[in-house]
Amino acid sequence: MKIEEAIVRFVDYIATERRMAAGTVRNYEGDLRDLQRYLERLEVSDLGELSSRDIRGWQMEHLGAGEAPGTVKRRLSSVSSWLRWLRRGGMLDVDLMAKVSAPRQPKRLPVFFKESETEHLYDEGLFGTDFTGRRDALMLRMLYETGMRRSELAGLRESSVDFHNLTVKVLGKRNKERLVPIENELAHNISEYIALKRQTVGENEWLFVNAKGRQVSPQTVYQVVRKYMTGLSSADRISPHVFRHSFATHILAEGGNIQAIKELLGHENLATTEVYTHVTREHLKEEYRHAHPRSRKK
Q1: C-alpha–C-alpha distance, residues 146 and 247, integer Å
Q2: In CA terms, which of 47, 137, 149, 293 is 20 to 30 Å from 82?
Q3: In angstroms, rounded to a whole number, what is the distance separating the alpha carbons of residues 293 and 19?
Q4: What are 205-239's pLDDT values in tens digits?
Q5: Strand runs labelled E in 50-176
Q6: Which residues contact 104 (CB under 8 A, 6 or more apart)?
Q7: Does pTM surpass 0.70?
Q8: Residues 76-132: pLDDT tens digits?
Q9: Is the distance from CB of 188 to CB of 137 less than 8 angstroms?
Q10: Domains of the chain
Q11: d(CA 173, CA 155)
């Protein structure tokens, strides 16, 4: 089988059968096309000609060009998933990844906003009083109070909010639904925003829209977070995902249950959530070093 055909069939599989998010599909295809271009330079076009040495050479080319180990590791993960699918389908006989080792990378703890920084989200003077300002305020508060991903927030409908039971139905990765609780004040903010939205753009199924009534994109969510939080936070990174980290970290710091946080975030594995326990430990150590008088004595 030609490598071109193998890539096309795999991309169709993850898009239609696995129903992966469009962005994830693009990442997979981009990595595989990058490998294909490298193989074309080696005049390798058939699956039967592909070897572990070729994949290692592609990996080393990216590392040699200064690409971050984490990015190279993600590329290898895409290729590994593709090759594993080919083996399961009987299109490939050997495990080409058995002799390929991913580059090591230092573990980085999740970045989060300080509680004192997130308190500014409830300062009415931070946002405008027009429709866009009220929308932006609600978007940021919901990111912080629910731990949603930006794509999940952008995909909310008015019907996603259950005002009676104080929950929001979130459509996560691979179309998995979960219910996230909200408190009374946030529910009231959502209700007021919906009323303003209907006055501004009319009836609309999407919860978050622009001034023309079109559903906001995940990129818009990112831009809104950058607009407000860049001047408010000293975090090394500013993005919607930092709110997700902050949600989990702040709950844990207050004694929240790790299993409950896993369910709220929509994680499949507890190990993914447990990284936040390390964050809180490191944060406590840092606070001790800065604040306790004995820690400053030489």
Answers
A1: 7
A2: 149
A3: 55
A4: 999 999 999 999 999 999 999 999 999 999 989 99
A5: 161-162, 167-171
A6: 69
A7: no
A8: 999 999 999 999 999 999 999 998 988 876 666 788 999 999 999 999 899 999 999
A9: no
A10: 3-99 (1.10.150.130), 115-291 (1.10.443.10)
A11: 12
